[in-house]
C-alpha cells in the first residue's frame, strides 16, 4: 500500500499538502470520520481521493450532480486511476459492466448519485465488497434551510448504520455555523473531527456597484482585461439569461444561456462546451454551477442581487479555483431588493423561515453598501476575522467618498411619513423631485410640503440614499407593494441629534475598472509565444481524448513549465501538477514544444 505522500507526488504531481489536507487524510487513514469545510478551489477532492487510494478497497463518493461526476472521473482516469460513476445517464449494459468491475476489485473510486446509492440493489452490492471510505460531497445539500437542498441527502445517515466500520467524510465549501451543526446532526457526524479552513479566497477581487446602464457596465468590464477569459454571469430570471447571452454574442463574446427551462440536451451541450472550449461565457440562473470543476474561470458576474451572502460566496467561489487572479463583479439595484423581498413574502415557508430569509437578504444588501473592506465584512459573516483590510476589493483599491447625508435623509424620511408610509421608493422619489405625473396628482401628493424639496439630487442619488437607509435600519420595506415605513431608530435623526455619513456614488468613468486578470500576470511579453504553443498542444491532446483542456494540465502547470523550461522527463516530472501517468501520456508532446523555444 502506497503512502499518502507517495500518491500525492506520483499520481497527482504535487510535493506538499495544503493545510489541513494531511490532517484530514490521516484522520480517515486511522478509520475515523471527518467533516470538512474548505473553500472552493481549496483542494477538498484530494482529502478523500488520496485515502481512498491508500486504504484497501474502493472509495465511494456521493455527489449531487451528473456533470461533476463526469468531470472528476475524467480527470482521475487521465491521472491513471481506476474510476467510474453510476447515475441515470449510464446505459444499462455499461452500468452492469461497472458493477462487475466493482465486485472484482477493479475500481479505486466509484461516484454515485444519492438516489442511486439509496436503492436497495446498490446498498446490497456495496455490502459484498471491501470499502475504503464514503465521501459525501456538497454536504450542505442536507440543509433544509439552504438553496441547494436535496431530500435524498437526508437519508445518507443510513451509511453509518449499515457500514459502521467504514470511515465517512462530509465536505462542503458553503456552510455557516448553524448549517455545519445541521450537517453533523443529519448525517450522524457529531463525533466526527471537524476541519474548518479559512473562507478567504485572496485571489478573488470583489467588486460591487449600483446598476447604472447595466449593459454598458458589463461590456466595459469585459473589454477591460477579460477578452478570451472564461466566465459565468448570473441573472435572476430565465428571460434575462437568454437576452443577455444573445446580446453578448452580438458584441463578439462567445456566450451560451443555461437555465432549468431549456431542454436537458441543450443544457448538457452548453455545459460541455463551457468545460471544453476555452474563453467561453455561460449566462445562467443559479441552476448552473454547483460542483463545476473548471479551474480557469476568471470572472463571475451577478447582474442581480443574490438572496444571501451564502449564495453569493458559493457562486463567486466558482472563479479562480486554480488560485490565479480572478474577479467577482456584482451589479445591484433597489429593484432587486424589492423583487427578492416579494419572493420571500410569497414563499410557502413558515414565518420563522421568512424571518431568516429577510435577515439574509438584509445582510447581503449591507455587504453592498458598506464603505469598509468587503472581504473583512464577508469573512466576518462566516465568523472569521481578517486583521487588516485585504487590499484586493473595490473599497480597498478605490476607497469610496462619503458625504453628510443627514439633511437628505430627513427630507426622505419626512416624505415617506407624509405620503402615508405605504408607497414604494419610486413614488417617494418622484414626490421629492417635484414630479407631477398622474400618480402624484391622483393622491394629491403634489400638494405636500415635501413635494419638490429634493430636486438637488438625481433619481439615482436618491435611490442610493433609500438603499443605505434600509441597510442602516432607518427604513423597512413592507407589504405586497413593498412600501417604505419608518422605524423607531430614525427619531434622533429626524430631531437633528444625529449626523449620517452616506456613501457617495463614484463617477461613471471610475466604475467597473478592474485590473487585468490575465493568467500571464507574472510572465513577460516574451513568454507569450510559448504560452500560446503550450495551450495549443494542450488543446490538441484534450480534443483527441474528448476531455476539457484543464484535465490534461491546469494553466498554473503550463506557467510553471514556462518558468522551469524543463528539457528532460525528470525535469518535467519536477513541475507541479505533473504526475507519473501524465508524464507518460503527455510528457513527450510538451517537451517537444519546450525544446522549440529558447529559455528566456
UniProtKB/TrEMBL annotation:
<keyword id="KW-0227">DNA damage</keyword>
<comment type="similarity">
    <text>Belongs to the helicase family. RecQ subfamily.</text>
</comment>
<keyword id="KW-0238">DNA-binding</keyword>
<dbReference type="InterPro" id="IPR004589">
    <property type="entry name" value="DNA_helicase_ATP-dep_RecQ"/>
</dbReference>
<dbReference type="InterPro" id="IPR027417">
    <property type="entry name" value="P-loop_NTPase"/>
</dbReference>
<dbReference type="Pfam" id="PF00570">
    <property type="entry name" value="HRDC"/>
</dbReference>
<keyword id="KW-0067">ATP-binding</keyword>
<dbReference type="InterPro" id="IPR010997">
    <property type="entry name" value="HRDC-like_sf"/>
</dbReference>
<keyword id="KW-0347">Helicase</keyword>
<feature type="domain" description="Helicase C-terminal">
    <location>
        <begin position="217"/>
        <end position="365"/>
    </location>
</feature>
<keyword id="KW-0234">DNA repair</keyword>
<feature type="domain" description="Helicase ATP-binding">
    <location>
        <begin position="25"/>
        <end position="193"/>
    </location>
</feature>
<dbReference type="InterPro" id="IPR018982">
    <property type="entry name" value="RQC_domain"/>
</dbReference>
<dbReference type="InterPro" id="IPR036388">
    <property type="entry name" value="WH-like_DNA-bd_sf"/>
</dbReference>
<dbReference type="Pfam" id="PF09382">
    <property type="entry name" value="RQC"/>
</dbReference>
<dbReference type="InterPro" id="IPR044876">
    <property type="entry name" value="HRDC_dom_sf"/>
</dbReference>
<feature type="domain" description="HRDC">
    <location>
        <begin position="524"/>
        <end position="600"/>
    </location>
</feature>
<keyword id="KW-0479">Metal-binding</keyword>
<keyword id="KW-0233">DNA recombination</keyword>
<dbReference type="InterPro" id="IPR006293">
    <property type="entry name" value="DNA_helicase_ATP-dep_RecQ_bac"/>
</dbReference>
<dbReference type="Pfam" id="PF00270">
    <property type="entry name" value="DEAD"/>
</dbReference>
<keyword id="KW-0378">Hydrolase</keyword>
<dbReference type="Pfam" id="PF00271">
    <property type="entry name" value="Helicase_C"/>
</dbReference>
<dbReference type="InterPro" id="IPR002121">
    <property type="entry name" value="HRDC_dom"/>
</dbReference>
<dbReference type="InterPro" id="IPR001650">
    <property type="entry name" value="Helicase_C-like"/>
</dbReference>
<keyword id="KW-0547">Nucleotide-binding</keyword>
<protein>
    <recommendedName>
        <fullName>DNA helicase RecQ</fullName>
        <ecNumber>5.6.2.4</ecNumber>
    </recommendedName>
</protein>
<dbReference type="Pfam" id="PF16124">
    <property type="entry name" value="RecQ_Zn_bind"/>
</dbReference>
<keyword id="KW-0413">Isomerase</keyword>
<dbReference type="InterPro" id="IPR032284">
    <property type="entry name" value="RecQ_Zn-bd"/>
</dbReference>
<dbReference type="GO" id="GO:0004386">
    <property type="term" value="F:helicase activity"/>
</dbReference>
<keyword id="KW-0862">Zinc</keyword>
<dbReference type="InterPro" id="IPR011545">
    <property type="entry name" value="DEAD/DEAH_box_helicase_dom"/>
</dbReference>
<dbReference type="InterPro" id="IPR014001">
    <property type="entry name" value="Helicase_ATP-bd"/>
</dbReference>
Amino acid at each position: 500500500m502506497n503512502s499518502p505522500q507517495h500518491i500525492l507526488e506520483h499520481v497527482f504531481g504535487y510535493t506538499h499538502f495544503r493545510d489541513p489536507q494531511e490532517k484530514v487524510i490521516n484522520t480517515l487513514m486511522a478509520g475515523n470520520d471527518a467533516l470538512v469545510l474548505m473553500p472552493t478551489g481549496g483542494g477538498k477532492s484530494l482529502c478523500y481521493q488520496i485515502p481512498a487510494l491508500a486504504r484497501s478497497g474502493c472509495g465511494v463518493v456521493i455527489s449531487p450532480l451528473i456533470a461533476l461526476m463526469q468531470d472528476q472521473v475524467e480527470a482521475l482516469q487521465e491521472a491513471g486511476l481506476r474510476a467510474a460513476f453510476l447515475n441515470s445517464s449510464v446505459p444499462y449494459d455499461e452500468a452492469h459492466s461497472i458493477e462487475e468491475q466493482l465486485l472484482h476489485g477493479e475500481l479505486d473510486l466509484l461516484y454515485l448519485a444519492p438516489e442511486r446509492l439509496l436503492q436497495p440493489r446498490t446498498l446490497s452490492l456495496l455490502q459484498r465488497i471491501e470499502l475504503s471510505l464514503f465521501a459525501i460531497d456538497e454536504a450542505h445539500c442536507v440543509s433544509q434551510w439552504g438553496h441547494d437542498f436535496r431530500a435524498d441527502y437526508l437519508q445518507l445517515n443510513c451509511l453509518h448504520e449499515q457500514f459502521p466500520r467504514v470511515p465517512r467524510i462530509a465536505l462542503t465549501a458553503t456552510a455557516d455555523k448553524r448549517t455545519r451543526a445541521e450537517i453533523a446532526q443529519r448525517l450522524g457526524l457529531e463525533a466526527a473531527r471537524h476541519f474548518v479552513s479559512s473562507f478567504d479566497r485572496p485571489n478573488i477581487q470583489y467588486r460591487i456597484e449600483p446598476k447604472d446602464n447595466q449593459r454598458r457596465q458589463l461590456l466595459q468590464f469585459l473589454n477591460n482585461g477579460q477578452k478570451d477569459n472564461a466566465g459565468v454571469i448570473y441573472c435572476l430570471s430565465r428571460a434575462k439569461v437568454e437576452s443577455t447571452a444573445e446580446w453578448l454574442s452580438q458584441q463578439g463574446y462567445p456566450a451560451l444561456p443555461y437555465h432549468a427551462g431549456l431542454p436537458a440536451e441543450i443544457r448538457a451541450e452548453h455545459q460541455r462546451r463551457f468545460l471544453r472550449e476555452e474563453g467561453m461565457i455561460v449566462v445562467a440562473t443559479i441552476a448552473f454551477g454547483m460542483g463545476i470543476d473548471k479551474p480557469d474561470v476568471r470572472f463571475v458576474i451577478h447582474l442581480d442581487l443574490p438572496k444571501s451572502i451564502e449564495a453569493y460566496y458559493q457562486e463567486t467561489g466558482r472563479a479562480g479555483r486554480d488560485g490565479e487572479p480572478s474577479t467577482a463583479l456584482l451589479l445591484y439595484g433597489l429593484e432587486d431588493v424589492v423583487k427578492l423581498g416579494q419572493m420571500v413574502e410569497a414563499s410557502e415557508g413558515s414565518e420563522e423561515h421568512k424571518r431568516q430569509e429577510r435577515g439574509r437578504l438584509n445582510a447581503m444588501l449591507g455587504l453592498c453598501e458598506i464603505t469598509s473592506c468587503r472581504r473583512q465584512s464577508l469573512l466576518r459573516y462566516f465568523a472569521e476575522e481578517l486583521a487588516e483590510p485585504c487590499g484586493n476589493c473595490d473599497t480597498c483599491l478605490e476607497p469610496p467618498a462619503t458625504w453628510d447625508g443627514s439633511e437628505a435623509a430627513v427630507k426622505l424620511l419626512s416624505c415617506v411619513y407624509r405620503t402615508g408610509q405605504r408607497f414604494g421608493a419610486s413614488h417617494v422619489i418622484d414626490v421629492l423631485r417635484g414630479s407631477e405625473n398622474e400618480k402624484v396628482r391622483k393622491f394629491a401628493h403634489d400638494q405636500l410640503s415635501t413635494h419638490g424639496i429634493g430636486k438637488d439630487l438625481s433619481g439615482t442619488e436618491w435611490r442610493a440614499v433609500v438603499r443605505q437607509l434600509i441597510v442602516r435600519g432607518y427604513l423597512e420595506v413592507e407589504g405586497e407593494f413593498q412600501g417604505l415605513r419608518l422605524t423607531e431608530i430614525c427619531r434622533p435623526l429626524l430631531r437633528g441629534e444625529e449626523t449620517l455619513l452616506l456613501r457617495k456614488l463614484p463617477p461613471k468613468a471610475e466604475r467597473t475598472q478592474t485590473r487585468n486578470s490575465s493568467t500571464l500576470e507574472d510572465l513577460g511579453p516574451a513568454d507569450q509565444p510559448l504560452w500560446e504553443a503550450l495551450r495549443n498542444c494542450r488543446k490538441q491532446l484534450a480534443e483527441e481524448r474528448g476531455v476539457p483542456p484543464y484535465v490534461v494540465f491546469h494553466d498554473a502547470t503550463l506557467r510553471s513549465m514556462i518558468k522551469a523550461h524543463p528539457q528532460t522527463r525528470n525535469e518535467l516530472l519536477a513541475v507541479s501538477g505533473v504526475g507519473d501517468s501524465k508524464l507518460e501520456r503527455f510528457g513527450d508532446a510538451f517537451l517537444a514544444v519546450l525544446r522549440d523555444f529558447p529559455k528566456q
